[in-house]
Amino acid sequence: MLKILSCLLMTALLLPSSISAAAADNYYQGKTIRIVVGFSAGGGFDTYARAIARHMGKHIPGQPAIVVENMTGAGSLIAANHVYNVAKPDGLTIGHFIGGLFLGQVLGQKGVQFDARKFEFIGAPITDHVVCAMTKASGITSVEKWLASKTPVKMGGIAPGTSTPDNATRIFKAALGLPIQLVTGYKGTANVRLAAESGEIAGGCWGWDSVKTTWRKAIESGDAVVVLQANRKNHPELPQIPQAIKLAKTEDARRIIDVGIHADSDIIRTYTLPPGTPKERVQTLRKAFDDTLKDAEFLADAKKSNLSVVPVSVEEIERDINALFKLDPGLVAKLKDLLYN
Amino acid sequence: MEMFSALISGLIQVFNWSTFSLMMIGIAVGFVVGILPGLGGPTAMALMLPFIFKMSAVEAFAFLLGMTAVTATTGDITSVLFGVPGEPTTASTIVDGHAMARNGEAGRALGAVLMSSLVGAVFAGVALAIAVPIVRPIVLSFGSPEFFMLSLLGITFVASLSGEDQLKGIISGGIGLMLATIGLDPIAGIQRYTFGQLFLWDGIGLVPITIGFYAIPETIELAVLGTSISTQKVEKLGGVMEGVKDTFRHWGLVIRCSAIGTFTAIIPGMGAATTQWLAYAHAVQSSPNKERFGKGDVRGVLGPGAANNSTLGGSLITTIAFGVPASVIMAILLGAFIIQGIVPGPDMLLPPPKGKLDLTFSFVWVIIISNIITVAICFLFLKQLARVTQVRGAIIIPIILVLIYLGAFAEKNAFQDMLVVLFFGGLGWIMVKMEWPRPPVLLGLVLGPLAENRLFLSTDNYGAAWLGRPGVLVIFAVTLIGIVYPIIKKKREEREKSASETQAQAAVERAGHGGVRFGSAALFTAVVAIVLALALFQSRNFGPRAGLFPWAIGIPTLLLALVQLGKDTLGRAKPKGALAAWEVAVAVPPAVARRRTVSILIWTIGFFIAIWLLGFSYSIPVAMLLYLKLAGKEKWPMTIAVTFFTWLFVYALFERTLSIPFPEGLLVSLIKGGQ
Question: Do B338 and A306 touch (CB under 8 A)?
Fold first, then answer.
């Protein structure tokens, strides 16, 4: 009897460890890579990660399995801290949390336990393209009408410190002098949209990719109108919409838009590795990530799910992040005051 | 006509063989997830999401909705039989359902809960179908002020959930509302009661609280009684048909509670976790002779049984018509929409070829058909299901403990949630012992954030003008009637009764006066008061916006807690209410009870420590083996079999198949690190 018991126990104890034993020369063979996503299943970050996870394995020598793990909380700060401090730098953990946290570090956001400059970046599938969309019913159908509005225009927000809508809206208000009353506390942009449709607020400012899919009907019929965009490049689908930075009057205002919105948009959906990950594995994963974003099957999946793919290179990401740490103290103080107070 | 053909087309699409078989797989998964305590529908849905990439839209939603639709039905079974919530959304069926099971009426309770679940599901389906043409204008006429008023109305339901002791109930509700303020405040982003823990930034989760609150006290109780769940012989599982008949006997109640579930769920933020309690409160409030509620009244089973199923229809309305997720589970379903490249919104309500109404109607059919199938299967195997309650407690307890911790962890892959379960398990147990009602805490916890958010959104958007909106006034009037009417009714009843009872009352009062006492009841109340006072002290730096809610709730709750403390120390001992039948049947000598209590408390904490030190895959065999051998005194074959299969189930399903990222045990990583 005891023999059977000890046999069972031995199998129980040995099974997990025997599986991880794999050939040393082909590092990734038989391994599992985890993408730690800082937001819950079904959200935008999660959907991109799952689409990438489905196709990235075949671009890595050894074809490891790739799984998505949701580690939610504190606007993905928990996941960011985890990837930096807890996850082993063995090339088997990829972090995907909101890139707005990097600006957060520079501005002294509470709870940040990482140094953005030490992460190893492997790329980003998309740059956010911030737009402001208003309902026709609000009467604000162009930026001229907006600027001319005698009363503050009500815009929806989620929580202070959120890249979009809150940070972007606050920056537009300060840098462009737009009459805005930011009403914050809605649970997600879907609720902002609902509040705009019911007439409670005029609209909101967040990514065009999300606006054009979730609000497509209203945009097509003209019940909702995009009045402003903010990105380093004009969006091909929005040739006529004015660029925020062109409306800025001062150098300071232009700097704030460039740092707070443009740079933030580029790094918002970065995929990262823990600091200290061996260089050759970083290279392997960067190349695999690049190849995945060009993979026809991945692109077909992305198209089906309305996910735009506009890759941001590692060089661009690193340049943006290094620039964040070279901001002059005056601008940092100004941004801090602008975004958190 | 176009609508009708879309309705038929939806039905035909569901009966396509690949769709139907995927729905059946979904039902099977949902069936098991619903029955297993700890594991909830949202967790299962999130885990199943990766599988839908290869499916077509109708297949994917048949699979996911089939799964979700049945969890609330089979979850009720666990709640009734074990007193442990099968789902966080079925906690309310425990109150009377489990009491019935203990009274030997398990069959009747199951019959009632299954039948009312089916009615609720069909109601949800029909409501969803009917709502299609009218839902947008109705929902769009609601703004933040109306949402605020509705959450306020919901909070007043605390009174009906309080049982006999209204004061304790209201304090409990206040505690729930205070707990809800933990985390980053939604307007200013100020940290409230987070103690520097990032984990608390989003507040404490409803799932681990509900699991801890109900599952742990019941596990302790089971261990103390030292019997199987059913304390009375259920030789023949009588009364199933009786329960089915009950559903039709109280037809009005079942329909009203179905309506409460569906219509409340349209409001973003109100899922079945809320609607079940609103329905239960309504069942209590609307019923004549309330004495049996909480001791095994079938009406307390029918209400929530119907509501937690009908909620799905309401949540779907908001999700489909606006793309606004009404609950956690809908947020995940929205992800499924995205993956499938479908944009919820007005298109979903237009007949093809312009829109996807046929898909929407296929949802209706999936909800109805999957519940019919599930309820039919349940009825067929009811005897076998009920027999589980006759399995020795010693075998059930370690399995429940494993599932509790597993479910708490897997919801967010957060280790800390296991601590939350443990803490609220302890609190729930003490509240049971001290006769404090638990439902008001949960209701306060869900409605608090909704009320706070919407209050600030209302004032920010409209100033004070929102108070004059017609919708606000109507809901206010309803709320007022809801508060005042029961009081008037009670007064009238008391006047009729009083004549005969004054003398007896006087006698009791005389006997009870015994000076100042400071027993365990007073101690608990004192701790509550002290914690509330400390919380208020903490909140002095929150500023007016983040501080408004903690102050507005904390101060009156603290005052009421002091009144309660006065009652506990000075007041007369309340004569104990009539005992339920099962309490009389199993009397455990106090000394034995005390020993068993200490033992199970140690085991409950021990399981957690084992998981912490060894990780899930090692701790499960070790802890289970030890429990079955030392505490359960089971024979070796049984011990090994139960241990092995529990471990195999967890390892094969969660670790291998679903790749749940179980954390490595502390000791394990130390050993590995040392090498």
Answer: yes
Asked if A214 and B187 come within 8 Å (Cβ–Cβ), the reply is no
- On whether any CB of chain A is under 8 Å from the CB of B202, the answer is yes
DSSP bridge pairs for A95: A36, A272
Tokens of B368: 């109805």
**B467 C-beta neighbours (distance < 10 Å), count:** 14
Would an 8 Å CB–CB cutoff place B426 in contact with chain A? no
Q: What CA–CA distance (Å, rounded) separates B533 from A167? A: 36
**Residue A223 near chain B (CB below 8 Å):** no
Quote the minimal CA–CA distance from B126 to chain A in Å: 25
In contact, A196 and A185? CB cutoff 8 Å: no
Q: Rounded to whole angstroms, how far apart are CA atoms B528 and B168?
A: 11
Q: Show residues of chain A in contact with B618, CB under 8 Å.
A: 12-13
Asked whether the domain spanning A130-264 has the same topology as the one spanning A30-126+269-340, the reply is yes
Place of tokens 């100033």: B463
Q: Where are the domains of chain A?
A: 30-126+269-340, 130-264
Q: Give B148 to chain A, closest Cα distance, Å.
A: 13
- Name the class of domain A30-126+269-340: alpha beta
Residues 6+ apart with CB under 8 A from A33: A56, A57, A60, A64, A65, A66, A67, A91, A92, A93, A94
CB proximity B265 to A under 8 Å: no
Asked whether the beta carbons of A26 and A61 are under 8 A apart, the reply is: yes
pLDDT tens for B355-388 read 899 999 999 999 999 999 999 999 998 877 777 7
**Is A41 in contact with B49 (Cβ distance < 8 A)?**
yes
Answer yes or no: pTM beyond 0.95: no
Instruction: Record the tokens describing residue B281, joined without a space.
Output: 């409160």
CA distance A189 to chain B (A): 9
Which A residues, 125 through 154, put their C-beta within 8 Å of a C-beta on chain B?
Answer: 154
Tokens 């609508």 identify what position? B3
- Would you give the DSSP letter of residue A65? E
The helix/strand/coil state of B186 is: coil
Q: Which residue, among B337, B341, B344, has the nearest Cα to B323 in the 3D structure? A: B344
What is the torsional sign of CA B424, B426, B432, B434?
Answer: negative
Q: What is the pLDDT of residues B30-86, one digit of tens each?
A: 999 999 888 888 888 888 888 888 899 899 999 999 999 999 899 999 999 888 898
Residue pair A255/A331 in contact by the 8 Å Cβ criterion:
yes
Interface of A with B in 93-112 (CB under 8 A): 110-111
d(CA A163, CA B306): 42
CB B470, CB B560: distance < 8 Å = no
Q: Quick check: A54 and B53 CB within 8 A? A: yes
ipTM score for this prediction: 0.86
The verdict on A301 touching B (C-beta cutoff 8 Å) is yes
Query: What is the tens place of the pLDDT at every residue in B81-105?
Result: 888 898 989 999 999 998 888 887 8
CATH of A130-264, one of 3.40.190.10, 3.10.20.600, 3.10.310.10, 3.30.870.10: 3.40.190.10
DSSP assignment of B486-537:
HHHHHHHHHHHHHHHHHHHHHHHHHHH-------HHHHHHHHHHHHHHHHHH
- Nearest chain A residue to B142 by CA: give it: A198
**Token duo for residue B117:** 């679940």
User: Cβ of B195: how many Cβ atoms within 10 Å?
Assistant: 9
SS3 for B183? strand
- What are the average pLDDT values for consecutive 10-residue runs of chain A, which has 341 residues? 47 44 66 91 87 94 91 89 93 94 92 94 95 96 96 93 92 96 90 92 94 89 96 92 95 93 94 96 96 95 90 95 93 92 79
